[in-house]
Each structure stands twice: as structure tokens, then as C-alpha cells.
Amino acid sequence: MTPGQRNLITDVSGFRVGHAQDAHLRSGTSVLVADQPFTAGVHIMGGAPGTRETQLLTPDRMVQQVDALVLSGGSAFGLAAADGVADGLRKAGRGFNAAGHLVPIVPAAILFDLANGGDKNWSDNPYPTLGVAALADASLDPALGSVGAGAGATTADLVGGFGSASATLESGYTVGAMVAANPLGSVVAGDAGQFWAAPWELEDEFGGLGNSPSPAPQGLRTKLNPQATTIAIVATDAALDQAACTRMATAAHDGMARSIVPSHTLFDGDLVFAASSGARAISDPVLDPIEIGHTAASVLARAIARAIYHATSWPDGPPAWQDLYGRH
User: Fold this and answer.
1) Is residue 1 part of a domain?
2) Could you read off the pLDDT of 119-140 as tens digits, one per residue?
3) Tell me, what's the pLDDT at 63?
4) For the chain: N or C, fewer Cβ within 10 A?
5) Which residue, 295, 1, 9, is CA-closest to 176?
6) Of the candidates 82, 265, 294, 106, which has an alpha carbon nearest to the alpha carbon of residue 182?
7) CATH no. for residue 313?
């Protein structure tokens, strides 16, 4: 496999990504949107998830497609970002037709960034406004690092962030991922800053430092804190139904396990949405979904490393990867 043209989830044709963040709040929101409704699934492996409308994504539900997917900071307050996205979509004439009323379907997931030192002393929830702004920002070239839902993210020992990556397969399918990486665990494996995701790196996209010579994590218990959760979206142009999207999301969790140690803990709300634009017909209903799921895991691992690689630090916060290892 090779990276897509942009090495972003937007290499999957039809999708765009928008960000909005507030530096004083030290938080933000990211949205994946398309010009048409798209099929989606979800799988949750963390012990502390925060979600909206994820039950609609199970294959036996009436609504089979969504209008957007939202990743947000802000813990439970951040779920309101989906309200802003839904309002913007409704004004644009988008939504599920329910008795003559358009109801945009906008599943969402949140991470916990309330304890990162930002100004959380607001009287009116800021996340609906951030949702509106993120939708308006949607483009083919979203920024990486300390933006959107990753604006206030942290890891066990470094600043977290927003990341994305993509891959084009020999079969012609494209698979992409976007992630807000805010895990309890660590994404680096050695003293020189090598990423756990190094075996899946393509074209030195997060430094090209290779694997750690001493990968065993040290002093883990001293780093545990309840500020956690990695939330992600994997997407493909392969025509997958909801059941196949759910399987793709399930497989993609391997990407978290490959790039975060530990992952899927009681304090993490680790979640993966999967999205299909349906642009390319499936040629082999058995082997194609397996290849796509494997690729989704690899692409997500890379996106997580890229999130931390591109993040920047803030005063009184943890160091950024670039602060410690950028000299390499």
C-alpha cells in the first residue's frame, strides 16, 4: 500500500473535514462530512465512552446513513457540538425526512480534556458554536496537530492532537483515518522518541526514527490519570453496508493497540466510527472487507503517531514530541 495524494482521510473521495478550536478553552471539535448521506458503523472498546446516536449505527436500525460524524473535546459538554453541526446541515437542506421534517443524523463521540488547564469557566456551552464553525471549515486539506478535537489533547507524557493518514491499495480502494488522540497510555516506545506505530510508518511520515531498541514501557503507574480517550473515524470508498462498516471499525481498533500502550483502558472511551462513501463496488465480498479492515488498522496507527508528531505544546502543559525529539 502507498499513502494517498494528501495522506489524509480526505483522499477517500467525497469526504471533507472541518476543525474549530478555542485556544483559551483549550479544546475543539472536528467533523467529517460529505455532500451526500453516507453509510457508517461504530465499535467501542474503551471503558468510559461518551457518545451521541451511536445506537442508530447498528445494522438492524431503520436509519442506514448519516449526514456527518463529529469528534469533540469537552467531555459530555462536547456532545453539543453535534447540535451545531446538525443546525448547519438543516439550514443547508440536509437530513433524514421524518414526516416532512429534515432531521440531520450526526453521531458524535467525545474525549475528556476538562483538566488540561484551559478556561472552562463558561456560562453558556461553547460547543454548539464550535460545531457550526467546524462544519463551515470543512475542506480537503484539514490541518494536523493541536487543532479541532485534538486542540487540548494529551497523552501519558506528551501533548496529544489530531492526526490523519490514508492508503491506496493495489485493488484500487482507498482507506483513510482521522483521530483525536488523547490516550491514558503512551505513543512513544523509547528514549529517542520512536513511536509504537513505527512498523507501519510510510515515507517517514512521523520522523522515520524506526523501532525502539528497548520497547518495554517503564514507570507506567506513575503516569496514570483520568484524562483520556482516543476517538477516531476510518473511511473507505468501498461500498460497505452498515454491518461491514461495523466490522471495519472493529478491525481498526487494532491500530490503537499498535500505537498506544496501554489502550482501551477503563479510563479511556476509545471508539472508532467507520464510514463508506460507496463510490467503488465490492468485487470480492469475502476478501475485500478483510483487506480493508486490515488497512484501516494500519492507517489508524499511522494517524495516531502523526497526531502527536505534529502537535505543539502550550504554557504549563506537557511537552510536545517536537520539543523533545524534533532535533532528530
Assistant:
1) no
2) 999 999 999 999 999 999 999 9
3) 87
4) C
5) 9
6) 265
7) 3.60.70.12
